[in-house]
Amino acid sequence: MRATLRLSIPLLGSDVPVEEEGAPDYSPRHFYPVRLGEVFQDSYEVVAKLGFGGNSTVWLARDLLRYRFPQDRYVTLKVCRNDPGHQAAAQRELSLSQHIASANPWHPALRYIRTAKDSFEVDGPHGRHTTLVYEPMREPLWLFQYHRLGGVYPAALLKTTVRILLYALDYLHTQCRIIHTDIKPENILLALESTAVLDDVVRDEAASPSPRKILADREIYLSRNDFGALRALPKFLRISDFDVAVRGDAKAPLTHVIQPDDFRAPEVTVGAPWSYSADIWNLGVMLWNLLEGESLCCGRDERTDAYSAGRQLAQITSLLGPAPPDVLAGAMDTHVFYHSDGRLKADYGVPGRTKLEDTVTCVEGEEKRLFVDFVRQMLKWRPQERATAAQLLEHPWLH
């Protein structure tokens, strides 16, 4: 009789939250209990867990119908929560993804934007789950920065990255009329060097199964999201995650709160109407996280790391000078942060004036002068004075 090889599967304690279980509003009723080996739509066989978020889990799957073609061998499945708010967000993300892909199907910038290849609904124990199918990508930009680059982007590589992001934003803003609203290193993904990277992930999962918690109705896996050392420099990257993106051509003014705390535009904070230029501000302040490895005006207390919108406005004031009266006039939350004469109600311990040049330490000379001039076109109090993505692509710093 042939002996059967049984692999030892590392089991996690049932009393410790694992990955998505750590979300503040986690409920097992809202997350579909994906299992390795499960096949969706008679097409997609789940082979590894790649990640999770507050509204979904993400899985690597074989495309059984196209497995003979190396470039199409795998897909990524984003299995969304089933509660009404998250279902609506998933449907909005799908709708926006389809709009982006069809607005100008032959535009070269689509190469730098991650859109859904397919979608389907799956019935879970407690309702239906929208599932979005994407081309697999490598790690997000922040992971690449800290694991591969030692925490700081080389200036030359940063220029290439910024050109790609501006090219993608120009397409989103002008061709699709879409504002991303959530530009951050976690939502920028690197392309894979080759499908062989994923072949190795599948082999590793088979040889050394991921640790998991086994419960009565589901298994909660640890993600396998480290694809190992780069085999070549990534050829391109893509902006992803459009679940909170909005149409910029809406008739009603856009005033709801958007953007990650660290990268929030001032008009958003004070409750004034915002538009495409909010993405430009967002990208501009994110450049410090890449080039310097730290935030420019994140609004966080150095001792507690607690975020304060007022502190962030004080930091912006230190860099750019006082907010112009017309920016504050009519904004819904101006009174929260400012006196009637336009003075901030508190200084939050922020220096009275900081030169933008003094915050840049990784480049010198003419390169530094050009970089500072470049970001000055993005970081302006008045949204209408910020350069567009197309205008920024012409700036000398990028060339």
UniProtKB/TrEMBL annotation:
Keywords: ATP-binding, Kinase, Nucleotide-binding, Serine/threonine-protein kinase, Transferase
Protein's GO biological process: regulation of mRNA processing; spliceosomal complex assembly
Reaction catalyzed: L-seryl-[protein] + ATP = O-phospho-L-seryl-[protein] + ADP + H(+); L-threonyl-[protein] + ATP = O-phospho-L-threonyl-[protein] + ADP + H(+)
InterPro entries from the UniProt entry: Kinase-like_dom_sf (IPR011009), Prot_kinase_dom (IPR000719), Ser/Thr_kinase_AS (IPR008271), SRPK (IPR051334)
EC number in record: 2.7.11.1
Protein name: non-specific serine/threonine protein kinase
Species whose genome carries this gene: Heliocybe sulcata
Annotated GO CC locations: cytoplasm; nucleus
Matching PROSITE patterns: PROTEIN_KINASE_DOM, PROTEIN_KINASE_ST
Lineage, highest ranks first: Eukaryota, Fungi, Dikarya, Basidiomycota, Agaricomycotina
SUPFAM superfamilies reported in the protein's UniProt record: Protein kinase-like (PK-like) (SSF56112)
Gene Ontology MF term list: ATP binding; protein serine/threonine kinase activity
Pfam families on file: Pkinase
